[in-house]
């Protein structure tokens, strides 16, 4: 569907043309959302920021989660999913602590611990490279609502149909050119080139945006 994350961001920029040159803020969820968001911001002349969010993972996997910790430290947990997995309190507390540590590390490195701009009169385009279960996006939307964002728009290249419907009920709008149905879904399947990005690579992309407000 997409050559890589940059090409996916350029495709999304076409769908978001109405926001060109406005004061809408593009907010990227690292790591994979950063190259997508950078392409959107560059194409439309919009401001770019990062909003670290980390999944709370099941103890036996490095990919699947049942919740997430957002950039403001808030936690969203799918209690039903945790119960079905028979997770103990200790396992959940450890998972949340690990996710929070990852968010704090990325806040310090990628945001230099700066607060987000005032959002009360500003719309936000929240960007990731895809939505599988949706826990990361749910946590991010909830955090932005707490900050009083005037409008939360979600832009992702690919999503499962169930996750897109769930997120659509929480956001003001969802922009997604590739919504997939079926018994299984993987974000990587929508890309010819897809791999995990390191914090160093994400930082290099952000440096390339030339944001004058960040003292790299």
Commentary on this structure:
Helix content is 38%, strand content 18%. The chain has seven helices and ten strands. The chain is α/β, with parallel strands linked by helices and 216 residues long. The chain has helices at residues 5-15, 33-44, 79-84, 89-110, 135-146, 161-168, 199-208; strands spanning 25-28, 47-50, 54-57, 65-69, 75-77, 123-127, 151-155, 158-160, 173-175, 178-180. It has a single domain, classed as Rossmann fold (3-Layer(aba) Sandwich). The protein is globular. The model is unreliable at 211-216 (pLDDT under 50). The strands form three sheets. A five-stranded parallel beta sheet has the order 2-1-6-7-9, sandwiched between helices. A three-stranded antiparallel beta sheet has the order 3-4-5. A two-stranded parallel sheet has the order 8-10. α5 links the parallel β6 (123-127) and β7. The relative contact order is 0.20.
Q: What's a quick, concise take on this entry?
A:
The chain is an alpha/beta fold and 216 residues long. 38% of the residues lie in helices and 18% in strands.
What descriptive keywords fit this protein?
216 residues, alpha/beta, Rossmann fold, five-stranded parallel β-sheet, 10 strands, 18% strand
């Amino acid at each position: 569907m997409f050559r890589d994350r940059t090409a996916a961001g350029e495709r999304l920029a076409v769908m978001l043309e109405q926001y060109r040159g406005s004061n809408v803020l593009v907010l990227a969820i690292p790591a994979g959302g950063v190259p997508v968001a950078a392409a959107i911001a560059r194409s439309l002349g919009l401001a770019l920021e990062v909003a670290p969010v980390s999944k709370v993972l099941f103890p036996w996997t490095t990919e699947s989660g049942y919740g997430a910790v957002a950039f403001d430290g808030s936690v969203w947990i799918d209690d039903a999913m945790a119960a079905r997995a028979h997770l103990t309190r200790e396992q959940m507390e450890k998972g949340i602590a690990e996710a929070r540590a990852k968010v704090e590390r990325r806040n310090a490195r990628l945001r230099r611990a700066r607060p987000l701009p005032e959002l009360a009169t500003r719309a936000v385009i929240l960007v990731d490279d895809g939505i599988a279960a949706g826990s990361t996006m749910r946590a991010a939307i909830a955090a932005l609502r707490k900050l009083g964002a005037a409008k939360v728009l979600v832009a992702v290249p690919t999503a499962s149909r169930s996750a897109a419907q769930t997120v659509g009920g929480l956001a003001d709008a969802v922009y997604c050119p590739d919504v997939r149905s079926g018994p299984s879904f993987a974000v990587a399947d929508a890309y010819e080139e897809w791999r995990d990005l390191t914090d160093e690579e994400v930082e290099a992309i952000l440096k390339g945006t030339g944001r004058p407000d960040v003292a790299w």
